[in-house]
Structures are given as structure tokens and as C-alpha cells.
Amino acid sequence: MSSELRLAALLCSRVCHDLISPVSALNNGIEVLADDDDDEMREHALTLISMSGKQASAKLQFARLAYGASTTSGDSLDFGEVRQVIDTLFEGGKVKVHWNVQTHTVGRSFVKILANLVLIAADCIPRGGSLTVHITDQDGRQTLKISSEGDRAKLNEDVGRALKDELEGEELNPRSIQPFLTGLLAREEGLRIEDRCEENAVTFLVNAD
Q: What is the mean pLDDT of residues 160-180?
């Protein structure tokens, strides 16, 4: 399999992995509605369907933002729309996202780097915590800093290596393909991603290479 086909296959696996849980829960709720006449169980099933539907929708919108090709014109996006997609993804979860942003629009390529790096930063705090996004805009040049803080915050070694393009092709898997893509997107834009790991905190910096 060529490297391009392998990249596409691994990204598809990643998206399917992210969606399988809410879609399965949605299906389970529908089955309960069809087979159970107990009012309490049906109410529980409706709650499950509503929550799972929202989760699946949030993950699909995020996947389109992080991985998808643009279907609209223009090189920039309204930052409010980008923020809404990311906030919806983390709504009700263990990770709270905070924003410190000095711009109203962001380039499409920059958005992909931002979205993917937010996901990586959140994975660094599996026990939950806070994630702060800083974006500055100086003379049209945007820089990005994402800080994740939480109990036992840690950057997985393979994730860090994937960001820096230090993994061999056969080492890539559905877990590491997303950080690999993030690093690839940054390098395509002439940007460098640095990571700093401290006690209970991991920070990512994106600057011009």
C-alpha cells in the first residue's frame, strides 16, 4: 500500500473509532424504544438517543473542521464558528476549554492545525483539567499556544514523535496518525510545533519555522 493510501486508511480508522461509541449508543437507544414498553426504560432510551445524537454530530463537525477539505470559498473562517465547534465537542466533558484570542478570523490551514492540536492537548489530560488556547495576531501573522493542565498530565511518547515526523511508516497507527497529520499540516505552512512538559502541565507552541 502506498504512503498516501495508508494515510487515508488510518485517518478513516481514526474517524470511525471516534464515532463508533455514540453511534452504537444511539442504536441501542432505538432498540430499547422498539422492544420495551416500560415507561421508565423508554424515557432512559430517549435521553440516551438525545445525548448520543449530539455527541455524534459534534464529532462529525469537528472531523470536518480538522480533516475535511473545504467546500466553501475564501481562505479564512470566522473564529466564532471555529470556537463553537470545539466548545461543542468538549461540552459536558472532563476537559474545560478557555480562550484567549486576539483575532476574529483564522486561515483554513491554521484552523486545521488548531483543531488537531486541541485534541492532542486534551488527550494529555485523560483525568480531566483545563485547556487554554492563546492566539495572537501580529501584522497578519498568527501564533498559537495551547496549554493543558491536569492531574498527571503527560504527552505520550509516540504522539510527540509523530508530531515531529520521527515515526517510521509502519509505526503509524490510528492513534498516532492524527498527531502525524498535525505535524505535516504545520510543516506545510512553514510552522514548527514545540512541546514543553512540566509537572501536571503540557504546553504546545506553534511558531514560524
A: 88
Q: What is the set of domains in the chain, with CATH numbers?
A: 1-68 (1.10.287.130), 75-209 (3.30.565.10)
pLDDT of residue 72: 60
User: What pLDDT is stored for residue 184 in this prediction?
Assistant: 93
Stated pTM of the model: 0.89
Burial 95-106 (b: 16+ CB within 10 A, else e): bebeeebeeebb
Confidence of residue 11 (pLDDT cuts 50, 70, 90): confident
Sheet strands (E) in the chain: 76-78, 95-101, 105-107, 129-138, 141-149, 191-198, 201-208
Rounded distance, CA 62 to CA 67, Å? 8
